[in-house]
Amino acid sequence: MAEAHTVIAIDGPSGAGKGTIARAVATKLGYQYVDTGAMYRAVAWKASLEKVAFDDEAGLSKLTERVIFGFENGRTVIDGDDVTEAIRTPEIDVAAAAVAKLPDVRRALVARQRALGECGGLVMEGRDIGTVVFPNATVKIYLDATADERARRRAADPAHASGKGHDLAFVATALATRDELDRTRAASPLKLAEDADFVDTTGVPVEQVVQRVLTLVHAKLGGSDSE
User: Fold this and answer.
1) pLDDT tens digit string along 141-172?
2) 7-219 is classed CATH 3.40.50.300
């Protein structure tokens, strides 16, 4: 049963397991799940479709404010187009990173993301959820893993085209580049919130990570949402 105003923020770099863990936790708790990275990717996809340059901050900001997002059954929809698979490509990886570093675009998307959390019962994952989007989130989790582990996961992920047809070294280099962009951008860089619980997922089975996160959630909620 979702509690009013309860928001679980899950942050971390690419390949740390955010999506897998956040979806599982949301399912266990009966909460809504939102992947904010998919929102940036969808904006980049839409901008490409409409020929809006990735450095056109004003144009991208207007686009971000008017589009309609949908998140049902793990799918990502923008203006009625299901882009779940289309946004998981190397080209969109690069485009999304370019879009995500623009302050006006981030402000527009943060406003949309905060609106999704107004009723609570939300598990939101990304790179700035506990630091910027919901600095007062009920629970803050930061997932991470070694660079080698994250590269292996991305290369083996059937849902992510950036790992298909490329060797591990290529994927590792691409992840390192994205990590550097995320951690050094001026607008909402990726970092560990001071009050977040750090969870290292290296070599840990998914089920164990999910249970660890649920234990942290139940502790913060006083056991009221326990299974």
Assistant:
1) 999 999 999 999 888 876 665 545 567 888 88
2) yes
